[in-house]
Design brief:
- By secondary structure, the chain is mainly alpha-helical.
- It is built from eight helices and no strands.
- Helix 2 packs parallel to helix 4.
- It is elongated, with a radius of gyration of 17 Å.
């Protein structure tokens, strides 16, 4: 609806404002992203709050389904912050092999960009030992 009827975007966002959706919070994350991208919806301070909430879903306090959705949405539309890269590094050594595999593939894809590669190298000492060991191998340090 947001794509097909741009003239009704504000109405759609207002009507779905408090919805969370399934336990993976995919509806909420999509809402946050669309709210950030919609001109005339909220002021810059509100948009910053929306972005902060969306970025917060990459944290290890959330389940892997929530984190996976957040990592993907942010990768597609926003620039990765240092916290995003730290959270992704943690996910690269997660106990669930499926989530770990997803995170490692995403990290390898991000590391193809020279600027992100340098940023990750610069943060390597901020990582936990297991994360540091994994990334040193990937970065060939």
């Amino acid at each position: 609806l947001w794509v097909s009827f741009p003239e009704d975007r504000l109405r759609y966002l207002e009507r779905t404002k408090g919805m969370v959706g399934l336990p993976n919070r995919s509806l909420r994350m999509t809402w946050l992203l669309l709210a950030m991208l919609t001109p005339n919806f909220g002021d810059p301070a509100a948009k910053a709050v929306f972005e902060e909430e969306l970025r917060g879903y990459t944290s290890a306090v959330h389940g892997q389904d929530i984190r996976k959705n957040a990592f993907l949405l942010i990768r597609e539309v926003l620039d990765p912050t240092d916290q995003y890269l730290l959270d992704l590094s943690q996910a690269c050594v997660h106990h669930s092999w499926q989530f770990r595999s997803f995170a490692r593939n995403l990290m390898r894809d991000l590391l193809k960009k020279p600027t992100l590669r340098q940023r990750v190298k610069g943060m390597i000492n901020r990582l936990e030992p297991e994360e540091r060991t994994y990334l040193k191998n990937v970065l060939e340090l």
